[in-house]
Amino acid sequence: MDNLNYGIVGNCRSAALVSEQGTVEWLCLPQFNSSSVFASILDKERGGFFSVKPKYLERTSQHYIPRTNILVTRFHCLDGVFEIHDFMPRYRIDRNEAYYIPPDLVRYFKHIVGDPEIYLHYHPKLEYGVPGTKHTIKEEYLKSSTTKGPYDSLYLYSSFDLNLFDGSKPTRLKEDGYCLISYNQKLLHQDVRRSRLKLERTKVYWLNWSERTTFYKHFQEEIIRSALTLKMLSFDKSGAILAALTTSLPETIGEERNWDYRFCWIRDASMVVKNMTSLGHYRMARHYLDFIIDILPEKDEKMQIMYGIKGEKKLTEQILGHLSGYENSYPVRIGNAAYRQKQNDIYGILLDVVYQHFELYSTSLEHSEELWTIVRNIVKVVKDNWQKPDRGIWEIRSENKHFTFSKVLCWAAIDRAVKIARLLKRDAYIENWSKLRDKIKTDIHQKAWSENKRAFTQAYGTDDLDASVLLMESYGFIDAKDQRFIDTVTAIQKDLEHNGLMFRYKNKDDFGTPKSAFTICSFWLIKSLYKIGRKKEAIQKFKTLLSYSNHLGLFSEDLDFDTKRMLGNFPQAYSHLAVIETAITISDGELTDDESIMDVIH
């Protein structure tokens, strides 16, 4: 059973997934949302891969160089030991903030002992494997190109004999070597020394980045690994943040809940930015707000729930019928039709980030004025739309409802707008906005509360429960000590927790009843339990949930209730921001005078 035991390496332009056995199974070039060159994770036969298979392999092990995104796969063989250091180059090239981030994957082979025999099988399939791919060996490189349709090509440079990359004959590894996969033809001569230099420079970049991360007393390594993963899911050219690296990894094996997550959801990205700012990574927040300003240039510009990573607004969904899907979970989709949906929660989450931005640091006058214009436009949108139904945080495709979470985040939008107006001394807006904020709050208390369930429910007029309602406290709508919130947490746990993990909701949606646990919801429950005073229970649940990550501490979108196997797109930004948020909540808190958090952790 595959548990998504992959490592991710990336440079904020694209990223690759490398299996526990050292095979590259997913890579899109030249950027995250380009067509794949390796996609065997979605189809072993047609997807393409790059494997390294020792003739006399005993075992492999895998780890990251601590506090970096350089992945080390160690091969223990009967005839020797070697490592592959996989990375995508990222380092500063001048004293300004210019970075070298080429569309390259470097596989640096580090010789340890002996002279192991290895088979190199380099098998790219360009353009998702739709057209044929031919290979031509030149003096310095092996070039792969499409045989029909749109032209595309890929270059392989290596210290190994280029005739040996079809996997038919072994070669002996007697010294360090390298393979460089590039979307572009290289202008400089490539060799082992140059690859080693790129490795060291990239290592220094990630070590410096990690060093700037705020230190917490507990769960620091989990926080760092999650932060490093989220950084890799940011797109340097625009400031956009991806929901996940992959497309069409299923929420349940054999079903059709398979979606393309290589886009920037305003909700997910704003949550990520808020967390990364709390860790001291302000540049990421400023870059993201620049992205928001760029996609909303006009005052009447309607905000979509999601965009392409370069701000693209049309994300047409289509099915790649020739790919069988992850473990035959068909279909494989590219694009995402959800971009047309109406979700009213995005406004509150975005203004929460804008408020944090104004509160934490000063900005240029131009920047501040642009953001203030966006704030006022969002207030107008919320005023006109908060009483209307929407598709909600879970993107129900078939039905609009008055979702409680959407209403709470409409309240949050106006609440943050009032606070921003106070910070900017725009007193003329405060009174009217405050009245609107109070009106929304009263409406939620009257219509979202169920006496029957003793809880705030998923939507107005229903007794169905929903994990997203747990965020009411996080956004300041209700106090953790309020009996209504305590009762809501208790009811949601009783109704939605199963085998220690959480459903998003249990009521039927477009595809029937959900069958897997949505990972972030389990973190939300833990945080809520901690806030209402059930701290020991929360810490123990957090430790258990962290153990369900893969061997590198990475999380996908979903977990199987019974086997705890990871499912869904990977690695998932939502899950990793929840690791950080929950870890910070616990690390900042205390238990009692005679029992510390450390006692419970250990």
From TrEMBL:
Signal peptide: none
Residue ranges constituting the GH15-like domain according to the UniProt record: 222-583
Origin organism lineage: Bacteria, Pseudomonadati, Bacteroidota, Bacteroidia, Marinilabiliales
Stretches assigned to the Trehalase-like N-terminal domain: 8-151
Protein name listed in UniProt: GH15 family glucan-1,4-alpha-glucosidase
Database matches in InterPro entries: 6-hairpin_glycosidase_sf, 6hp_glycosidase-like_sf, GH15-like, Trehalase-like_N
Superkingdom of the organism of origin: Bacteria
GO molecular function: hydrolase activity, hydrolyzing O-glycosyl compounds
Gene3D superfamilies, alphabetized: 1.50.10.10
Species the sequence originates in: Mangrovibacterium marinum
One record GO biological process: carbohydrate metabolic process
Coiled coil stretches, renumbered: none
Family matches, as Pfam families: Glyco_hydro_15, TREH_N
